[in-house]
Amino acid sequence: MKFISLQENLKKGIFAVSNITSKNISLPILNNILIKAEEGEINLIATNLEIGITYKLRGKIEKSGEIAVNSKIINDYVSLLPSDKVLLEKKDKELKVECKNYKTKIKTEDSDDFPLIPEINRSDYISVGVDDLKKSLSQVIFSVSNSDSRVEISGVLFSLQDEFLKMVSTDSYRLSEKKIKIENNIKNEDFKEFKIIVPAKTLQELLRILSNLNDDFSSEKDKIKIFISENQILFSFDSAEIVSRTISGQYPDYEQIIPDKFVSEAVINKQEFLRAIKACSIFSSGGINDIDLFLNKEKKELSVNSASGQVGESHSNLEANISGENSDIKLNFKYLIEGLNNIKDDEIVIRIADNNSPCLFSSKKDKNYVYIVMPIKQ
């Protein structure tokens, strides 16, 4: 194996794949990335057996071949090289790296021991905008459960609804739902019925790579293709592909807990609302993180209140457009702040059914994102 690539491209490619490698005592080969140069393509590959990442590297191949090299060493070394052409060549059981006046040899592993990256049927897929997916994932991934006791909510539910890809996450205390427009026509009716749970770690890795490769996308028209099998999902875009196992199990029937009727609705400025929440959070009961919201239709006010026997109390009255009945509800301020920060609008819509039912937050403009918070029981 022998090829030449620019240091900038090599650095970006190694960064894209190397994050999932780690010190694995039982399977040392997983500490490596596989470099393959064949059939006119240079591929960098890494896997932890749950996630596999392939990156297509730009470069000139002089001799085909493959080699497995320690991920951390090659990543650290290449990042320190000058911005110039880099020669990589396999010599016996070593990888020779040359760039200007830098020369090194890195010990390698037998590439035959490197695990195969699973293949997925690519006959049907979903196509969505790269920028749309990045923004949408950031709006749902924060409310995924971190608990190991309920593995089915440790990921994001992906499903199709009409012409939209719907993504849902919950930790049983709050829930995020986001829909994004699908750009392609799906002919297979069976494919339209899929529901899969994608691990949060996979989506965090996807977001990391998309952010790093952002400059590689030529325009907002760039798309990411999502291929799905019974227990795997593949994201394919530009120079990279990520394949991951999905989570087995039944996702909660969350739609049943969302009220279909609300007695109160308020429209309020997001930044003013956030400021009031943060001010009242200082006087919230320790460990409970509770604040009270009161919607007053007559005064056209939303009040944010909190009290603590040890610290004191706080009250903020905000101007709001309120319809329906007067209502009050007790919520966790941390959940409120996280959710509001992910609603991309200057005005927030708040809907309340009663003080024991989930409270719904959404953008006044964007009807495709909703955030729901369970109340603290009165």
Overall description:
With 378 residues, the chain is α+β, with helices and mostly antiparallel strands. It has three domains: 2-113, DNA Polymerase III, Chain A, domain 2, CATH 3.10.150.10; 126-254, DNA Polymerase III, Chain A, domain 2 (Roll), CATH 3.10.150.10; 259-373, DNA Polymerase III, subunit A, domain 2 (DNA Polymerase III, Chain A, domain 2, Roll), CATH 3.10.150.10. The protein is built from six helices and 26 strands. The strands form three sheets. A 13-stranded antiparallel sheet has the order 5-1-7-8-9-6-2-3-4-17-16-15-10. A hairpin with a 2-residue loop joins strand 8 and strand 9 (102-109). Helix 3 packs across helix 4 (200-212) and helix 5 (270-281) packs antiparallel against helix 6 (333-341). The longest helix is centred in the middle third of the chain and has 13 residues, at 200-212. The chain starts with a strand and ends in a 5-residue tail after the last strand.
Estimate percent helicity.
Answer: 10-25%
- Total strands: the figure is 26
| Overall shape | elongated
Specify the CATH architecture of the largest domain: Roll
Radius of gyration: 25 Å
Q: Runs with pLDDT <50, length 5+?
A: none
The amount of beta strand, in percent, is: 35-45%
| End-to-end CA span | 68 Å
What topology, given as strand order, has the largest sheet? 5-1-7-8-9-6-2-3-4-17-16-15-10
- Major sheet description: 13 strands, antiparallel
Count of discrete alpha- or pi-helical segments spanning 4 or more residues: 6
CATH homologous superfamily descriptor of the largest domain: DNA Polymerase III, subunit A, domain 2
What's the rounded overall pLDDT mean?
92
CATH class of the largest domain equals Alpha Beta
Indicate the structural class: alpha+beta
* Count of the separate structural domains: 3
CATH topology of the largest domain: DNA Polymerase III, Chain A, domain 2
